[in-house]
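Journal club prep — side note

Before the paper discussion, L.F. wants everyone to see what a predicted structure for a comparable chain looks like in token form. Sequence:
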Amino acid sequence: MEPLFLSKSQARKIILDAAGLARRGQFGLGIDAVYKFINHLGFVQLDTNYVVERAHHHVLFARVPDYEINWLAELCEDGRVYEYLTADAGFLPMDDFRFSLPIKEAFSLHVNPGDKRMENLMQEILDQVERGGAVMVGDFENDRTEASNGWWDWRPAKVALERLYLEGKLMVSRDRKFHRRYDLPLNFIPQDIDQTIPTAEQFAKFTIRRTLGALGIASVKEMAWRARRVKGNLVKPELEKMVQEGEVLSVGVEGIKGPLYMLAGQDMDIAISGDVFILSPFDILNVFRHRLRDFFGFDYQIECFVPAPKRLYGYFSLPVLAGDVFIARMDSKADRKHKVLLVHNIHFEEVELGMETIEKFIATLKAFVAFNQCYDIRFDRTNKKEYLKIIVKGFS
């Protein structure tokens, strides 16, 4: 079949609709909307950074206006969602559980069979969990026998627990302080969940469908990224079959190097509301930097990983989206002691903002302040004083 050619504007609409950002409340309200979004996306990335509210909560708040942070834990406790590491650490719908099994199998193959001490420790911990229930890292005495070499030099009990988790022998939940509790899978997985390991072909097709469902339009590289932990996966050959069979369409987008793909039956009649969203750096829309450049003309990098002297916009700069245009980036921090959202730098992009967009931005900022359990906001600097003056007045 000949590729379907799209303008960048059409492509952006498809991408934003897939990301749940075509309009505010795209999945509705309440805890069921949270589940609908996770089930639609297939994966919400987890991050422990607490400069503002943690990324997984931030991502959900951006889609579900009345989001409450306890809802994610409730969905996990109800067995509808679980935590695991696939492409990255995150929360996944329990109905997809069987497709995590090839990844767990891959982790079990990457072990040193000669490390008997670690194997014995893993078995001891597993026995302890089976006898006494869930454990935390803090339940084990410091079993380090050599001096620490740095932050990532975990002690043996921590390594053993993580290996048991990655290999699927244990699963995790979180307490109120976000500490992990490790327990047996049977205490997490509902009885009606399919736990048969998929074939290589099934795993590849699942990955393709999930990636295209979440990204709207994607390259082979992005699909392969989601399956990268399973070496020798069949994403590329199965993609070719799905194109030949008509389940996936080959797509060309003006000015963007292909090949690109999207699911057949994709809705092409998408309206973008013009709503304003403050996004997490780990939002599905932002995880591939090249996509932001190619489709949105937005060159974005999270600078907490950049040495301070080389930062352009700030340590934790949040992208601000209005409709299908990125209008600003906002280096923010929640001062929880004083209940103030600190905006160290709000940098506006070179786009002209009308009053309607600015007013929507003010409303979104007010909601974001409350979401971070703050009562006030403070701006330190900006490159567009005329815009900031209007925003500050909107808070008075």
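L.F.'s comment for the group: The first strand starts at residue 4 and ends at 6. Keep this in mind when we get to the figures.
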